[in-house]
Every structure is written in structure tokens, then in C-alpha cells.
Amino acid sequence: MRIALGSDHRGFETKTRIAERLSRAGHEVIDKGTTSAESVDYPDYASAVAHAVASGEADRGILICGTGLGMCIAANKVAGVRAAPCHDALTAELSRRHNDANILCLSSDMLGDRVIGHMVDIWLATDFEGGRHARRVEKIKALEHECD
Ligand code: RB5
């Protein structure tokens, strides 16, 4: 899978470890930065990953900041993105099964590496269930055109 990664300074070290894990598992990592622990603005990296996913450059995206929340709020402004702030294996799994989330947003401050690794593995391996959830996701997509 082609996976776009992005973080701000707070998520930089976690992003590096996720990139290593994904590469080891055979995924193609598209690293959209940041490239150091120097302070940056998370919307810039949310934008880069969101556009990579929305355009089809990447199949999925993973964003990391202190809480995972700023990244999620910013990424969801881009049409075609369904970014989910997940905190454990169950939210990661359900964000795929029910919401067809295409970007996983993680907190570097609140989650340890083992939990994050497990969540990422589950999130990447879980398929969208479709059915009644497909109707609901279509309604989410329709919201993107309300202001057209
Ligand atoms: C940066 O200090 C922090 O605000 C950011 O990493 C994130 O938690 C925002 O939602």
C-alpha cells in the first residue's frame, strides 16, 4: 500500500518509527514531513497528506501531532478525506469498518509506540464493511458539495 505520512514537531519521532515499521512490512512510505523536531504548524502537514490521499497519490494517510486533533480537523477540510482521531485498537478498527476512514490521526503525547504499532497494523488490515455504512458515508460525501 502507498501510505502518506505527516507530523508536526511533536509527532516527528513517532512518525519516524511508524515509517520504519511500514517499510519493514513492505509498504511504500510517502513522507510529507516534517523533517525535524523544530516547531512547525500542523495544518501544513495535514494539508500535504490530505491532498496526497484525495488525489490518489497515496492509498491512505497517517498524521501525528501532540493530540491528533489539530491534524484531524485540518485534514477533514479537504474534499475526499475521512480522517479519524483514534485512541485505541477498537476506534482504529471501527474507523475503517464503519467510516471508511482514509487518514488515521494519532496522538504522540498520549499513546505509546506499542499501542500505536498495533493500531496502525489493524487500521491498515481492516476493510470497510459497506452495506448500511456505505449509505452513511455517501451522505458524508454529499456534505462536501453543500456549498458548491
Ligand atoms: C503543538 O504544540 C500542538 O498544538 C499540536 O501538536 C497538536 O496537538 C494540535 O492539535
Notes on the structure:
With 148 residues, the chain is of the alpha/beta class. It is 46% helix and 16% strand. It contains 6 helices and 5 strands; from the N terminus they run E-H-E-H-E-H-E-H-E-H-H. It has a 5-stranded parallel β-sheet with strand order 2-1-3-5-4, sandwiched between helices. The protein starts with a strand and ends in a 5-residue tail after the last helix. The model has no long low-confidence stretch (mean pLDDT 97). The chain binds D-ribose.
Brief overview:
The chain has a single domain (2-143), classed as 3-Layer(aba) Sandwich (Ribose 5-phosphate Isomerase B, Chain: A), CATH 3.40.1400. It is of the alpha/beta class and 148 residues long.
Largest sheet: 5 strands, parallel
Distance between the termini: 32 Å
Helix content: 40-55%
Q: Under CATH, the topology is which? A: Ribose 5-phosphate Isomerase B, Chain: A
Strand order of the largest sheet: 2-1-3-5-4
Index terms:
globular, 148 residues, Ribose 5-phosphate Isomerase B, Chain: A, five-stranded parallel β-sheet, single chain, 5 strands, alpha/beta, binds D-ribose, 16% strand, 6 helices
Topology readout:
Blueprint: E1 2-7, H1 12-24, E2 28-31, H2 42-55, E3 60-65, H3 69-75, E4 83-85, H4 89-97, E5 103-107, H5 113-125, H6 132-143
Parallel strand pairs: 1-2, 1-3, 3-5, 4-5
Helix pairs in contact: 1-5, 2-3, 4-5
The chain binds D-ribose.
